[in-house]
Write a structure and sequence with these properties.
The protein is mostly helical. It contains three helices and no strands. The protein has helices spanning 7-78, 84-119, 123-127. The protein is rod-shaped and about 120 Å long.
Length: 128
């Protein structure tokens, strides 16, 4: 009984194993690169979301102030204590503040949706 071993088989299997190990290392590095890219994108979208939310809160407070001023000026105008120019100025300021608030509400909704698209769940679930 004899066993025949081809030396070429041993050498080629060792080279195949080393090539497979190298390909595995490259795959792991590619995966890590993708993870870092996703992390960077999530953080970027989160910061946009957070900034938009804080800005919306500030603009909403401003709108409430401007709206209160408008209500007071309107009452004064209806009582004859204010002229049309003051009423018109207050109404224009209220309209501009409302446009800014509505615009930021839209930006906030988009930022939130873009963040949730990446994380796969609602922002409220993650943050609260």
């Amino acid at each position: 009984v004899g066993i025949g071993v081809n030396p070429g088989t041993l050498i080629s299997s060792r080279a195949d194993r080393k090539a497979a190990e190298y390909e595995e290392q490259i795959a792991v590095q590619n995966l890590n690169t993708q993870k870092l890219a996703i992390r960077a994108e999530v953080l970027s979208r989160y910061h946009i979301y957070s900034h938009t939310l804080k800005t919306l809160q500030a603009v909403s407070e401003n709108y409430e102030t401007v709206n209160s001023t408008f209500i007071l000026v309107r009452e004064k105008f209806n009582n004859g204590e204010s002229d049309f120019e003051e009423f018109n100025t207050a109404q224009s300021a209220r309209t501009e503040a409302l446009k800014g608030k509505l615009s930021l509400e839209m930006e906030y909704a988009i930022a939130k949706a873009r963040l949730e698209e990446l994380i796969g769940i609602s922002v409220e679930t993650v943050l609260y």
